[in-house]
Amino acid sequence: MNKNRFKVFNKLRAFKNMGVLGGGTALALQVGHRVSFDFDIFSYHALPGHLWKDAKKVLGQDCEKLLDFEDQLNLITPGGVEVTFFHDEYQPLFKAIKTNFIDLMDLRDIACNKAYIIGRRPKWRDYVDIYFLLKDKKISLDQLLKLSIRKFKNDFSKRLFLQQLVYYSDITDYKIEFLKDEISPDKIKVFLEGEVSRYKTREL
């Protein structure tokens, strides 16, 4: 995290009582696998009507509003850091990780969110995140599926997720800034395909 993004992260403590940091940045802070450039704050309550005013007060009056819906506010700070506030209707399965800044969503909840969204918005970074979660044994594929069904119930399709995890034709941008060794897309694909194949074999 560069100095500019750390400044924003530090300021986000003002929203500690409103939500938790989720998404790729929260995962990267726990796993240390790749650079994530934006901040996603998940609230399990309706977003307050004065959120935009509060955000400008905390993050800078020159913030630019990118999107403003009842359940989502996207903005970019004067320093060019994108911040999203999102009302999440799905309650977390695990307690957030306490920090001196804004609390972090548990990586198992982040993993479930990645599994849920990967069939709806194919982004290579989500495949990379799931690769590291599985490879580093932060969670198993079987656990991920069971937890995702528990969290999203009928809104999550195990079959669709397993299909999407080995389907890459919709991916157009493979650019990832790794924090350690560079991992090729082919290596990640082979690993994920192996995980899915072994899971299906066990389920037969």
Structural commentary:
Helices cover 43% and strands 12% of the residues. The protein has 8 helices and 5 strands. The protein has a 5-stranded mixed β-sheet. The chain is of the alpha+beta class. The model has no long low-confidence stretch (mean pLDDT 95). A hairpin with a 5-residue loop joins strand 4 and strand 5. It has a single domain, classed as JHP933, nucleotidyltransferase-like core domain (Nuclear Transport Factor 2, Chain: A). InterPro entries: AbiEii. It comes from Candidatus Woesebacteria bacterium RIFCSPHIGHO2_12_FULL_41_24. This is Nucleotidyl transferase AbiEii/AbiGii toxin family protein.
Topology:
Elements: H1 3-11, E1 20-22, H2 23-31, E2 39-43, H3 51-59, E3 64-69, E4 72-76, E5 82-87, H4 107-117, H5 124-135, H6 141-152, H7 158-164, H8 185-203
Parallel strand pairs: 2-5
Antiparallel strand pairs: 1-2, 3-4, 4-5
